[in-house]
Amino acid sequence: AVSAADSVVSSAKKTPTAIPSDSVINLSRGDPTMYQPYWRRMGDKCTVVIPGHDLMSYFSDPGNLCWFLMPELDDAIRRLHRVVGNAVVDDDRYIIVGTGSTQLFQAVLFALSTPQNPDTEPLSVVAAAPFYSVLIVFMEGGSEMGGKGCCRVYYNVFALMEPSYPEETEFLRSGLYKWAGDAYSFDKDGAYVEVVTSPNNPDGTIREAVANREGGKLIHDLAYYWPQYTPITGKADYDIMLFTFSKATGHAGSRIGWAIVKDKQVAAKMVKYIELSSIGVSKEAQLRAAKILEVIAKDCASSGPDKEENFFEYGHRLMSDRWEKLREVVKRNGVFSLPKYPRYFCNFKGKDTDSSPAFAWLKAKDGLNCDNLLREFKIVTRGGPNFGVESDYTRISMLSVDEEFNLFLERLAAIKGTRNGHY
Ligand code: PMP
């Protein structure tokens, strides 16, 4: 049996190894490994060297409200947003760095729910279904895997977590806030927060708040508002916006996210939360993120005939190529359907552009359980019920390495139409 540690180590290897043609393909997580060839091609351009005596203090910028944010990262984040044109980062906006945007989500909930009035109910947290959701898949022995011994590689891996809004809201059983489900059906009185993810995980749609009632605050999770996934139609200018290094560039392992916040008090409370939970954020990770964001911004801003393909051009070319192939397979086998996305003018690319979301939100025709059906073909995905909707939907990561993606297409193409309910 392969242990959890072995499996993690093998997925973290530098050079992708050939995938045995009969192995299980796990596309249930949004691990953005597909960008690795680009960064390998960049060679030493993004290498950061840190001597042993460096970065020893807790403090990065004591005069700044977010005293643990390195000025280099602050500058690189603002510069990149200006170059891409996807968010307003004027000087009066506060940037808060977090250990991934996962920590920042918790920080925002803390900020919006304190100080608590002891006479009031916990703050309700809602999101419109389908919403970003939890991933606890592999039970020991792989009984969930669709049988036929197809789960060897993942044997013994219990709980590969992708934290989610419901999970993150509930896991400490806070008295400050409470998960209150689908924003469409939310009808409670009192204060609430709606999380708006746009483009949305899992279905890639562009979203606005739906629970438009008194007493509501909004958190905009813009993890996928980057040119490789969606046309950039304007500078987002919301009160609280979350971004993550994980999905912007693929460097999920660095665990860097940032919030752009308008209100000083909210920003200060978020800083307090991060102080209390981790006394700041790794400076090594911040420096690496700063370097990589800086290189991208510089490449995007440069022009001329010899100009190399910048990261977002590369990412978009790759993503749209994958989407085109997937749509072709889905069209040919007639068993599934995919959402259609409108084409918009992308300010970054300067032309009309299609969306190519990080996840495919696949629907099985005939009301079949889509996740189970794919598991029979050794493709592990994340079924609709985990996102608050029916089981004929499932979410498939589009961010895996090439070999895995190609194997996925091959297997999907082999699933033919129904004959007496059998595939
Ligand atoms: N928000 C959304 C919508 C996501 O899909 C993810 C990652 N799957 C996150 C936040 C978490 O990002 P991070 O790696 O920065 O914690």
The first-level CATH class name of the largest domain = Alpha Beta
Uncertain parts: 1-15, 134-160
The string of secondary-structure elements, in order, is HEHHEHEHEEEEHEHHHEEEEHEEEH
Bound molecules: 4'-deoxy-4'-aminopyridoxal-5'-phosphate
* Count of the domains: 2
The CATH superfamily of the largest domain turns out to be Type I PLP-dependent aspartate aminotransferase-like (Major domain)
Number of helices: 11
Distance between termini? 31 Å
> Mind telling me which CATH architecture of the largest domain this is?
3-Layer(aba) Sandwich
Helix vs. strand class:
alpha/beta
Mean pLDDT across every amino acid position = 88
The main pleated sheet reads as: 7 strands, mixed
- Annotation, overall tally of beta strands: 15
- For the largest sheet, list the strands in their spatial order: 2-8-7-6-5-3-4
What spatial form do the alpha-carbon principal axes imply? globular
Fraction of residues in H or I helices: 25-40%
CATH topology of the largest domain: Aspartate Aminotransferase, domain 2
Radius of gyration: 22 Å
- What is the strand content? 15-25%
Organism: Hibiscus sabdariffa
Cofactor: pyridoxal 5'-phosphate
Family: Belongs to the alliinase family.
Protein name: Alliinase C-terminal domain-containing protein
What does this structure look like?
With about 425 residues, the chain is an alpha/beta fold. It has two domains: about 5-40 and about 315-415, Aspartate Aminotransferase, domain 1 (Alpha-Beta Complex), CATH 3.90.1150; about 60-145 and about 160-300, 3-Layer(aba) Sandwich (Aspartate Aminotransferase, domain 2), CATH 3.40.640. It has eleven helices and 15 strands. The chain has helices at about 5-10, 35-40, 70-85, 100-115, 165-170, 245-250, 265-280, 285-300, 310-335, 370-375, 400-415; strands at about 25, 95-100, 125, 175-180, 190-195, 215-220, 240-245, 255-260, 335, 345, 350-355, 360-365, 380, 380-385, 395. Strand 10 (about 345) and strand 11 (about 350-355) form a beta hairpin. The radius of gyration is 22 Å and the shape is globular. The model is unreliable at about 1-15 and about 135-160 (pLDDT under 50). The chain binds 4'-deoxy-4'-aminopyridoxal-5'-phosphate. 4'-deoxy-4'-aminopyridoxal-5'-phosphate binds near residues 132, 162 and 197. Belongs to the alliinase family. InterPro entries: Alliinase_C (IPR006948), Alliinase_N_sf (IPR037029), Ethylene_sulfur-biosynth (IPR050478), PyrdxlP-dep_Trfase (IPR015424), PyrdxlP-dep_Trfase_major (IPR015421), PyrdxlP-dep_Trfase_small (IPR015422).
